[in-house]
């Protein structure tokens, strides 16, 4: 359905819907913002009232502490309290107590002995001496710390505002003095009268609220669960409607002097002015939204009509172009999107005008060209047939050449294999010759070492000969000495007989030494002869080894040359094989190419026949194209 509407109607519907949505969203947003602002102001006022309650309790606590401090600073009071003179204290303070009770709302005025024993109650003089330590923590704390204590605290008479101050006499702690101010229904009535806000306090006992004092009845406005949350530390706020009008209710916890939560304060405030402000804001927002909607719809209708008129003019121009009238220009006007669209359509019309004129001119030229192509195609067909026959003969020759190349390639592969084997064998021979040369060098080195050892042995043998000569000389001297000793023994007679025996033994020993050295010299001489022959043999062997190494080195050089020659032969054989492979591949490629040329020639002949048919068809189509082009109007009727 929407697709069938005119563009102007679509624009008005779209713009109207957009304006309605925007106005609605702005109105809702403004109303929510106003509701938040009013809610924050309302909460701030309730929190201000709650703070006023806490401030009033703090102020009353300070007043009670001030009264107690004033009393504790009186020297006469200190003296009488220290001496335990209850009667004197009563006579001194009883007249002032009445004025305090009437003028300051004091309910209690009493003295305590440590830790928390009642010494004097001016509000009940007849009652004293009872122990309060089990429930009066302010008194116990003030006596222990000897510092003032103030705040809310429960007692026998109920919850009250306490101010407890320690009393000292000449630096000695004697007890505490306390003032208790009114914290009951009167406190709450006075707060309501001053601020026009209902107030109630509930003590939480076993999770249930018990009304302590209230200006709005015994039943809380909040339920038990909400009061429990408030007592746990989460402030609660709600709106209720009562016969008196709309109310804002606030609940928060309240603590005693030690910071321990003891109950919940509930405040109820008239929120009629906030409701009225919200209603005024809502009415104003709705009025502004209606005015904005009306103005926006009016502007949307005017804009839609203007756009529709321009689009209609542009549509008429496009329809003229579509019908073939390319003579009249398209006039749009304006610099917006519609104006740009009109310029684009005018550019398209101008290009179509030029294109149709060129097509008309080219169609006439194409007819003549097609006739020329037809004649050229017939000549090309004859030439193609002759070329196909020539290529077939060349193909046959190249196939024979390819077969020869294949045989040469196979033989060259065999040559490469043989060359590779020769190269490998020559390399192994060169490696073996290098090993022989290395072993010969080791033998030459060992022979040199042996020759050195033999020469050293000859030198040592000569030294042995020298030593033998020395031993022979010593033996000769020994025989001479033994001979002389024998002569002396003979001349000595019987007394020198034993000495003669010894001399004979010495001479025989010297003869044995001479014989032994002679044999040793003979052996040494033989050894020296053997060493000389061995030296000559070793020198000849060294010369032979040197000659063998030279010959081996020459052989290794020759084998190295053979290896290089074999490597070059292998490389050349590989190059020849590669060349024959490439020649074979090239021959095969030429044969394939020639076959493709033959096939292409055949295909060309077929294509030329088809081209001849197409040229006849193009002649007919060119005539039809001329008729179509003539349907376009390229000049105005006046021209």
From TrEMBL:
GO molecular function annotation: transmembrane signaling receptor activity
Keyword Transmembrane helix among UniProt keywords: yes
Keyword Hydrolase annotated: no
Keywords: Membrane, Transducer, Transmembrane, Transmembrane helix
Pfam families in the cross-refs: dCache_3, HAMP, MCPsignal
HAMP domain boundaries: 305-357
Family to which the UniProt record says this protein belongs: Belongs to the methyl-accepting chemotaxis (MCP) protein family.
Name of this chain's protein: Chemotaxis protein
Organism from which the protein derives: Paramagnetospirillum marisnigri
